Amino acid sequence: MMKLLENKIFKMCSAIVEWAIMVVLVLLIILVGVQKFSNRGSFFGYRVYTIISGSMIPTYNVGDTLLIKEMSSDNIKIGDAVTYLGEGGSMHGKIITHQVVEIDFDENGKYLFHTKGIANNIEDPIVSQDQVLGKVIHKFFFLTILGKITTSMPLLFMFVTIPIAIIIALEIVKLVYKKDEDIEEEVEEELKEIEEEKKEEEKELEEIEEKTEVPEEEPVEEVSEENQEEEKEKKSLEPEEEKDK
Question: What's the pLDDT tens digit per position in 174-197?
Fold first, then answer.
């Protein structure tokens, strides 16, 4: 396991996987937050919604994430997909995205939109211009993938739950391995300190021994008996020589 964790390729791959999962999770959080915010109001005239039913198949599938832009009713044409807040019958309080199939006006000159899901056989209740939140202007590709993950339990388990579990397991292994490394480093440091202390003690002992060493006595030249007699004779002859002088 340690060799695997120390492998450079493994480290690089695990780092990429971790970053990818973190990015996906952050985007999922942002997506959910933006959608929650879109239910209450627009952000500079834009909203983001995810399709949760199959009424707009094949144009929009379940999980597709759409960008909605607020615009005046006179810019909405037949064939456009509009997002509106339902008021009548079973659609009351729901946010719906359907296609405009016909446009009328009421007695006050306000727009009345006839809308219908592409896959539906029956039209929706009449939608007034005050109900319209905006027109669909774009479908996000990457956010659509994330939207489909969030609306499918198997995909959510496969792409979110399992990767998170893998990350947690890797982090636990790394922590354990790091602790072992820290313990080894501490032991090595202690051994080094002990060795250094021993070396210092040996140096001190050597210095003490050098200071306490007794200097060696100079060797005394030994005079043999013959040499001693010769010296005596020389000394005894010296006065006689002086007398002769």
Answer: 777 766 566 666 667 777 777 777
Q: Where are the beta strands (DSSP E) in 63-108?
A: 65-69, 81-85, 95-105
Domain range summary for the chain, segments of one domain joined by +: 22-151
Contact 61, 51 (CB under 8 A): yes
Spatial separation of the C-alpha atoms in residues 91 and 75, rounded to whole Å: 25
Q: For 78-119, what is each residue's pLDDT tens digit?
A: 999 999 999 877 788 889 999 999 999 988 889 999 999 999
Q: In whole angstroms, what is the distance from residue 10 CA to residue 17 CA?
A: 10
SS3 204: helix
Contact 80, 132 (CB under 8 A): no
CATH code of domain 22-151: 2.10.109.10
* DSSP annotation string for 7-52: -HHHHHHHHHHHHHHHHHHHHHHHHHHHHHHHHH--BTTEEEEE--
Mean pLDDT of 68-85: 93
Tell me which H or E stretch contains 5: helix 2-6
Strand partners, 113: 103, 127
CA-closest candidate to residue 126, choices 158, 88, 161: 88
Cβ proximity of 143 and 65 under 8 Å: yes
Give the contacts of 57 (CB within 8 A, at least 6 positions apart): 118, 119
Residues listed for the chain: 245
| Residue labelled with tokens 């774009």 | 138
